[in-house]
Structures are given as structure tokens and as C-alpha cells.
Amino acid sequence: MRIDGAAYRTIWPEGDGVVAIIDQTRLPHDFAVVRLTGLEEAAHAIRAMLVRGAPLIGAAAAYGVALALRADASDRGLERACATLLATRPTAVNLRWALERMRGLLAPLPEAQRVGAAEAEAAAIADEDVEINRAIGLHGAALIRAAAERKAPGEPVNVLTHCNAGWLATVDWGTALAPVYAAFEQGIPLHVWVDETRPRNQGASLTAWELKHHGVPHTVIADNVGGHLMQHGKVDLCIVGTDRTTATGDVCNKIGTYLKALAAHDNGVPFYVGLPSPTIDWTIADGVREIPIEERDGREVSELTGRTADGRIETVRVTPDGSPVANYAFDVTPARLVTGLITERGVCPATRDGLLGLFPERG
């Protein structure tokens, strides 16, 4: 995607053991590139959410393994790298998927071959993510086009999204926003309602930032506005992302997604989920009971960071001193509330049979 006319991915190798990332904790007020040179830096980037979004976490973990092996390419070094990176974030299944793929490739190789193979495989994972997301965009754009055909000529399709599932959450294109970008490039009139997405404000800070830079019409709204908009016919469809999807179509996404799905169901608004196949966890069937929900530092709820009128970046407390804070980062939307899953192979019902219809090799 483009920032001020320049093409960027969210992560890229610079050679000689350096991997560059966009520091998402400093957006939207400051665009900064951070360079990773070792395992601990890569793990910190994932844990502290310099990089976030399930697909990007997976790619960053793959590059983290490659960086780690430059310092220690032994079996012990490989296992330490995978264990350290796996412990950074518990919910996004792409992290485990990428590490298992790296370990499976590298473990049989002689130590002398591991660094080069790891760097090539990390690059392959990143390239594959771009193409997967591009395909999600094309399949999802067809849904937006169909919605446009039901509206008056020139009237925009109103899409509501929650959190950030754009190109900042992936290597490029995005998952939930890939259909928006594809439809926009096809000239389909559209407008995006952007949930602010407390507590980390990924919608207001990241989704709005990338839509603005790409020129897509959008409006930032408070998290609880979506239901009101749906009641008044101002949302044509919802598209969100997912950090883990069960084999039966339950989806785990940023906290608050479940409430949007309930509102959509009550108002007859189609609710779609954009997901790359590595986000599907084929080992579990009940998302509510089986997906681990990350609980993060309460300061993400009790404090807010923003830019003051004179340009300073400041953090302020918004809760009373001493008030306990709970910070559940994700919730699970049951498959019964999901209209369809948008994957790189097409759109399917949020059911086991629907997923197996697109991925028969998993049967």
C-alpha cells in the first residue's frame, strides 16, 4: 500500500541480519521504522504490539526465527527461538502456524544451511500473505459490488468495520479491508464506518490512518454507535477480521466484535469475516470454550495517549486512582451470527462443511 505516494509493506528484510518494521504504536501521529536485529527485539515487537494483526504476527515470528539463528543455529537455538516467540501472544493462531512451519523446515537441515533457509522461508511467508490477502480482496469486493447494485446509482455502500484488519495488520492489503481497497480501486462508491476500537483505538488510530492515506471515504465513530447506525439503515454490510477461526466457523476478533455481530443479526445486516487460511485453527470446534483469550495490561484501558494542541504526545489517566481494570483483548463471535467467511479461495458459510468445501484437504 502507499504512504504519501511511497509503496510500503509492514515488514521487510534490509539484508545483513536486519528486518525493518513500521512501529504501529506510534501511529497515527508519527510514522517511524524500527529495525530488528535479534530474537529479543523481534519478540518485543510482537509482545508490545509494534507489529500486530494475526497475519503480520506470523510473518514477524518467521523473521524472528531467522534473526535468532544468526546468533545460534543449533537445535537448542532453534527451539529457544520458537519457544520465546510462541510465548509473546496467546490468541492469534498464525503465530503458532508460522513457527511450526519454520521448525518443520529447519530442524532436519544442517546448522550451516539454516540461516539462509530461514530467511528464504520467512520471505516466502510474507509474499504468500500478500497474495492471499489480494485474493481475499477480490472475493470480498464482489460482495460490495452486489450491495452497490441494490442502491441508487452513485450512492455509496456503507461498510462497518471493527479494529484494524487493513494492510497494517498483515504484510500488505489486509483481510477485512482488502475487499474495501479492491472495491475502491474498481471504482465502486463506498464509505467506511470506522469503530474507534477501545481500548487501544486501533480503528481510530490505524484504520482511519491507512484509509486516509489511500483516499477511501470514511468516518470514525465511537464503538457503541454501530447498532444505532444499523437501526437507521446506514450500514449495508459489516466486514471484520479474525485472529483465530475454528473449524466450525466461530471467529475470535478484537473485543467488541461479538456485540457488532449481535446488532447486525438483529437488524438484518450481513456480517462477513475476512480471513486468510492460516488463521483457521482446524484443531478446535468451540471457540468460546477453547480459544485462549489474551488479558492485557489494565493501563491500556485506564490510560489514553494522544497529541496535544501544541504537538506533544502525552499519556493521561481516565479512570479513578485505585479502580481495578479488566482488559480482555478479544471475544468470540459464534458461527451462527456470521453471514459468510471471505477467504483466499472464495466466500463460504461459517460452518464446518462450508470451510471444507473450500479446503477439502482438511477433511
TrEMBL record:
Chain positions of site Transition state stabilizer: 163
Gene3D superfamilies named in the record: translation initiation factor eif-2b, domain 1, Translation initiation factor eif-2b, domain 2
Keyword annotations: Amino-acid biosynthesis, Isomerase, Methionine biosynthesis, Plasmid
EC code: 5.3.1.23
Family indicated by similarity: Belongs to the EIF-2B alpha/beta/delta subunits family. MtnA subfamily.
Keyword Phosphoprotein: no
GO biological process, one term: L-methionine salvage from methylthioadenosine
InterPro entries according to UniProt: IF-2B-related (IPR000649), IF-M1Pi (IPR005251), IF_2B-like_C (IPR042529), Initiation_fac_2B_a/b/d (IPR011559), M1Pi_N (IPR027363), NagB/RpiA_transferase-like (IPR037171)
Taxonomy, superkingdom: Bacteria
The protein, known as: Methylthioribose-1-phosphate isomerase
Chain residues that bind substrate: 52-54, 89, 202, 253-254
Reactions catalysed, as given in the entry: 5-(methylsulfanyl)-alpha-D-ribose 1-phosphate = 5-(methylsulfanyl)-D-ribulose 1-phosphate; 5-deoxy-alpha-D-ribose 1-phosphate = 5-deoxy-D-ribulose 1-phosphate
Annotated function: Catalyzes the interconversion of methylthioribose-1-phosphate (MTR-1-P) into methylthioribulose-1-phosphate (MTRu-1-P). Also catalyzes the interconversion of 5-deoxyribose 1-phosphate and 5-deoxyribulose 1-phosphate. Part of a bifunctional DHAP-shunt salvage pathway for SAM by-products.
GO molecular function, one term: S-methyl-5-thioribose-1-phosphate isomerase activity
Active site (record annotation): 243 (proton donor)
Biochemical pathway: Amino-acid biosynthesis; L-methionine biosynthesis via salvage pathway; L-methionine from S-methyl-5-thio-alpha-D-ribose 1-phosphate: step 1/6
SUPFAM superfamilies, per the entry: NagB/RpiA/CoA transferase-like
